[in-house]
């Protein structure tokens, strides 16, 4: 024997290596061929005679050098093979690839076989099968029937080539039963899902290995959870823009302000996860609910989530408690979020990984319906922004701002303390701070009003806030940045946020001497940028709110009001008190039956 070559077909693992032993002579089509002149083309004919490669008629072979120890259970793609290997030319003598210092090493893979033609034409129908697997239901299941829905078995089976089907072992440790295998898959020589096998099923059979710390589990969790939703979700109408975000900076406070993994669909997070290593003692289930500050998902009856401790994963349903409609002293009680267990999975076992795949498949079918029931968002549920001035804004369950200079925090502490002492309504609150950061609540929902009703409500809330800010003695507060990006919807009320550029006016006339030269001209009163100014810059901002809110059928008096607020001469603009009266009158004229003014304590 002159050569012993370990060969492996594309899509198979190291457990299916074919060892080809080349002696002094080999028989090719009944002719004895000396190994010294045996060509690569001759060697391919020998490979085609092997039982394990039955069905192949043509192939390319690539010389590689891969240690079997590091290679174990890995499935390489064709592109990866081409990058690491050398294609063996059919006319070349085989020995030339393994002469002298090129001799094949023991316990290594030496040749990759890449099929180029099989005996029958097999069509990859992965895309069609995925669409069948994730067909949406006619309506969203209620909470009493959701478990049964999520455990529904698929109506179609995934066809696999005999080689891939054989990887679903039904004998030995860690195997699945034939019933489990046949629930999801079928062996076929006429149709196949090679694409789906490569992207998803192969990774479920051979997931990434894990270590001791949490980071070492990310690949494992992603193979089973993230990758399943990503692969199957592409077949669902409405999930085309689905995005994933993983928190990789857990050593900072960001981890307390967002889940470890989020899926975003049109800026909404209908699926999230908390993750810990196997040795963690944290109450991960509690983390899923305790981080919630409010339920901002409108009419959606539930969201989906999971928590993982090592390879043990629990999927849960997140729902809003019944306290959501309770009012006390004109204040809405904070809604509690509950979690209900949907199922526990030991993902060490292939059987459990396939069961998790099926549950996630059914979750994918529901995500667009849930998102459609949620209010629209202008910004994602979870996002980190870096402003030009160096400030970092973490948008999560609450808002955290991190500043370069301590004086920015000192300034905000003084502003928010004054707002609190004077009981100014319709603003966010500074909950706590450190030397360089502030923690603000509530975050609210950032979006413009969608109709006249909402626009008038927003104007009433903001003008009430400005009236109370401007009347503070001895020095009024000027916000100076009244724009829609700084207004959020919270519990049926619009609140003013982002007081970074707020300041105190003078005691006598409420005048500020220094202009804000770094402001953009769009959305700010002209005098704010060029000269001394007063409280009327905020009134100009209210007028601009009306003009920059693109709703249909704005009343004539509202347009005239907006023009009056944006008069070039600040002294001609109304005060916040008079402007508020004007807007309340318009509100009562167009919405006379509304009880909203009483609910929010304005009437």
UniProtKB/TrEMBL annotation:
UniProt-listed InterPro entries: Kinase-like_dom_sf, Prot_kinase_dom
Domain of life: Eukaryota
Domain called Protein kinase: residue spans: 226-603
Pfam families associated with the record: Pkinase
Molecular functions per Gene Ontology: ATP binding; protein kinase activity
Name of the featured protein: Protein kinase domain-containing protein
Originating species: Rhizophagus irregularis (strain DAOM 181602 / DAOM 197198 / MUCL 43194)
């Amino acid at each position: 024997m002159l050569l012993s070559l370990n060969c492996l077909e594309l899509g198979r693992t190291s457990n299916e290596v074919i060892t080809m032993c080349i002696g002094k002579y080999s028989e090719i089509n009944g002719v004895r061929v000396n190994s010294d002149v045996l060509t690569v083309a001759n060697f391919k004919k020998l490979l085609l005679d092997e039982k394990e490669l039955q069905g192949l008629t043509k192939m390319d072979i690539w010389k590689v050098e891969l240690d079997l120890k590091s290679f174990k259970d890995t499935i390489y793609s064709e592109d990866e093979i081409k990058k690491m290997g050398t294609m063996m030319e059919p006319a070349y003598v085989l020995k030339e690839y393994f002469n002298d210092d090129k001799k094949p090493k023991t316990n290594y893979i030496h040749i990759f076989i890449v099929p180029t033609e099989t005996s029958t034409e097999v069509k990859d129908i992965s895309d069609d099968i995925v669409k069948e697997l994730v067909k949406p239901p006619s309506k969203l299941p209620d909470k009493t029937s959701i478990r049964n829905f999520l455990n529904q078995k698929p109506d179609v089976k995934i066809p696999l080539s005999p080689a891939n089907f054989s990887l679903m072992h039904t004998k030995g440790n860690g195997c699945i039963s034939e019933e489990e295998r046949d629930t999801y898959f079928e062996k076929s020589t006429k149709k196949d899902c090679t694409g789906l096998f490569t992207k998803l099923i192969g990774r479920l059979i051979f997931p990434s290995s894990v270590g001791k710390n949490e980071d070492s589990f990310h690949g494992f969790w992603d193979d089973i959870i993230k990758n399943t939703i990503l692969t199957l979700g592409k077949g669902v109408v409405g999930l085309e823009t689905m995005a994933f975000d993983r928190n990789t900076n857990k050593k900072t406070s960001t981890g307390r302000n967002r889940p470890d993994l989020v899926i975003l669909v049109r800026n909404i997070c209908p699926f999230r996860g908390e993750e810990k290593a196997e040795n963690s003692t944290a109450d991960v289930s509690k983390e899923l609910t305790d981080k919630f500050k409010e339920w901002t998902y409108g009419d959606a009856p539930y969201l989906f989530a999971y928590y993982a401790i090592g390879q043990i994963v629990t999927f849960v349903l997140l729902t809003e408690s019944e306290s959501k409609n309770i009012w006390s002293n004109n204040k809405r009680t904070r809604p509690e979020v509950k979690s209900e267990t949907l199922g526990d999975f030991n993902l060490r076992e292939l059987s459990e990984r396939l069961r998790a795949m099926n549950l996630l498949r059914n979750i994918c079918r529901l995500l667009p319906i849930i998102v459609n029931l949620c209010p629209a968002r202008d910004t994602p549920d979870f996002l980190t922004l870096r402003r030009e001035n160096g400030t970092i804004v973490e948008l999560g369950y609450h808002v955290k701002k991190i500043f370069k200079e301590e004086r920015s925090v000192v300034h905000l502490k003084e502003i928010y303390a004054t707002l609190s002492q004077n009981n100014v309504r319709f603003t966010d609150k500074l909950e706590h701070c450190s030397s360089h950061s502030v923690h603000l609540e509530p975050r609210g929902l950032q979006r413009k009003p969608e109709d006249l009703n909402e626009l008038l409500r927003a104007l009433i809330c903001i003008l009430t806030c400005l009236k109370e800010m401007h009347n503070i003695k001895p020095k009024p507060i000027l916000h100076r940045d009244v724009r829609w990006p700084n207004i959020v919807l919270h519990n049926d009320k619009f609140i003013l946020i982002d007081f970074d550029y707020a300041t105190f006016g003078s005691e006598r006339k409420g005048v500020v001497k220094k202009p804000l030269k770094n402001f953009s001209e769009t959305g700010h009163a002209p005098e704010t940028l060029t000269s001394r100014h007063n409280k009327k810059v905020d009134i100009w901002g209210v007028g601009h709110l009306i003009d920059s809110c693109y709703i249909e059928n704005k009343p004539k008096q509202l347009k005239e009001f907006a023009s009056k607020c944006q008069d070039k001469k600040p002294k001609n603009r109304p005060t916040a008190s008079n402007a508020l009266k004007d807007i309340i009158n318009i509100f009562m004229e167009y919405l006379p039956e509304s009880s909203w003014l009483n609910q929010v304590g304005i009437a």
